[in-house]
Amino acid sequence: MHRMAITALTLACAVVVTPAVAAAPATATAKPTYRACYDGKCQFTFSDSVSFRISKKRYGFSRVYVSKEYVGGVFNADMVVVQGPGITSSLGEGGRGDMRRNGKNTLSFRVLAITSQGATIRFTG
Which pLDDT tens digit goes with each residue over 110-121? Predict the structure, then answer.
């Protein structure tokens, strides 16, 4: 009987403690990583401006900046702006773009969605 009481008590403690551990936030302040984008092939959703490294050997430049901005004038709409050194592309939802520098490979991308919270973009290399 003594073993049964200890086992029951252990299980009861585990049940009580488990929800508290599961309810703890999972590193809410952790910054997303864009390492998968280094080869120029990735997809992500963003709400704030982001930048990430790409292969300079392959594309001729090493950093890409992506943001969602309101573009007035002719467009009067939210657009995704993709920038590299001396290269800027502003695209609406469904738009496709390319960046090429110094005769290297072309970095292609497509804006999949733009919402009030952010945007989703896919880089296809």
Answer: 999 999 999 999
Cβ burial, residue 105 (10 Å; 0-12/13-18/19+):
middle
Domain of 102 in residue numbering reads as: 35-124
Question: For the chain, how many structural domains are there in total?
Answer: 1
Average pLDDT over residues 76-100: 93
**DSSP designation for 117:** S
Q: Which residues contact 82 (CB under 8 A, 6 or more apart)?
A: 64, 65, 66, 88, 89, 91, 97, 99, 109, 121
**22 part of a folded domain:** no
Task: Tell me if 64 sits within 8 A of 109, measured CB to CB.
Answer: no
Phi first, then psi: give them for residue 120, nearest 5 degrees. Answer: -120, 130
For the entire predicted model, the pTM comes to: 0.72
Burial label, 103 (beta-carbon count in 10 A; 0-12, 13-18, 19+): exposed
